[in-house]
């Protein structure tokens, strides 16, 4: 079954202060994750937690190499990884008890989205928080 984004979930995720683990957020300023995470942090007031292969610190936030290394709870796992690799990240998000999953624009994995939903996570797929925030006038 093809995933359909719920506008109410999108609105709630963007407007409720939360801890967002941003997977694929490194110190490389050319990557889209840098600008989107800055928007989440500064414009929407979310706490961001960078997650990358090197565990780079970004925007003054301590970085980690995996979701499992992050202390405390994770509200949203925001995925800036290739669609062919996102399934493993989704499985990690389920394992650490994340509450929601956001797959960025162009990141599509129907099976992984379904696994996440079946595990009780809210799922947004194939869109960007900046795009959705603009639609909502945030």
Automatic annotation (TrEMBL):
Span of domain CoA-binding: 14-107
Classification via InterPro entries: CoA-bd (IPR003781), NAD(P)-bd_dom_sf (IPR036291)
Name of the protein: CoA-binding protein
Superkingdom field: Bacteria
């Amino acid at each position: 079954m093809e995933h359909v984004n719920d506008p109410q979930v999108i609105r709630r995720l963007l407007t409720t202060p939360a801890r967002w683990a941003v997977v694929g957020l490194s110190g490389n300023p050319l990557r889209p994750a840098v600008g989107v995470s800055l928007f989440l942090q500064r414009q929407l007031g979310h706490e961001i937690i960078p997650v990358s292969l090197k565990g780079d610190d970004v925007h003054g936030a301590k970085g980690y190499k995996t979701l499992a290394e992050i202390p405390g709870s994770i509200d949203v796992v925001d995925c800036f990884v290739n669609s062919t690799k996102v399934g493993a990240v989704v499985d990690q998000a389920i394992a650490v008890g994340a509450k929601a999953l956001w797959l960025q624009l162009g990141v599509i994995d129907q099976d992984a989205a379904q696994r996440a939903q079946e595990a009780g996570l809210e799922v947004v797929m194939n869109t960007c928080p900046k795009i959705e925030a603009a639609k909502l006038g945030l």
